[in-house]
Design brief:
By secondary structure, the protein is mainly alpha-helical. It has 10 helices and 2 strands, in the order αβααβααααααα. Helix content is 71%, strand content 3%. It starts with a helix and ends with a helix. 28% of the residues are buried.
Length: 195
């Protein structure tokens, strides 16, 4: 099957998506990888499903980059069909997608406890490799947006000019804090609220 056949059979349809939307899909994929890792010790089924979602979102991002999206029926299946046509040189990685899709469907829709530790670890190891492979194929504009995210994550947090008291004080008390009360007033308020 080729792209024209996918279009003729209405498996995919043309779409126009900007770089920001594509970058956002990759951001979701990154978030999902981190979430899946955090679920590893608590729920294998959901850790698998969330890591799978990272793979799916990055696949949708690549599809959008190419100017397509899956139509309403069998979206996951058709997304991976598109990817297998679009990236034949990545056959080894792409061939695993449909197996992961079937396992995810069983886990989410049919039964509990179907994912074992080895399977979830495999999925969690696969997801970042796959997402990075997709990321490398995205436009320069999307790359630039994602690199800005990387830079923000590496830099230390900025300190606020107003200090710690301003940042930890609930908004309803901030007008009171702007008056800069004396220590005795703060102690008095603290004592009177504890009675």
């Amino acid at each position: 099957m080729n792209f024209d056949e996918l279009l003729d059979k209405r498996i995919i349809e043309p779409v126009s998506v900007d770089a920001v939307e594509i970058a956002n899909l990759l951001r979701v994929a990154r978030r999902d990888i981190a979430t899946a890792e955090s679920l590893l010790g608590t729920d294998y089924d959901w850790a698998f499903a969330v890591a799978y979602n990272a793979v799916l979102k990055s696949s949708v991002a690549y599809m959008a980059q190419c100017g397509f999206r899956p139509t309403n029926r069998n979206k996951h299946y058709n997304t991976f069909r598109f990817i297998s046509l679009a990236l034949p040189e990545e056959h080894e990685l792409v061939s695993r997608l449909q197996r992961f899709r079937k396992k995810r469907n069983t886990t989410v829709y049919e039964s509990v406890g179907t994912v074992g530790e080895a399977e979830v670890r495999d999925m969690i190891a696969f997801a970042p490799v796959y997402v990075e492979m997709i990321r490398e194929r995205l436009s320069r504009e999307v790359q630039r947006l994602l690199e800005e995210d990387d830079w923000r994550e590496r830099r230390p947090p900025r300190r606020r000019a107003r200090g710690l008291a301003q940042s930890i004080t609930p908004p309803s008390f901030q007008p009171m804090m702007r008056q800069r009360p004396s220590i005795s007033r703060i102690v008095h308020v603290t004592v009177s609220t504890s009675e």
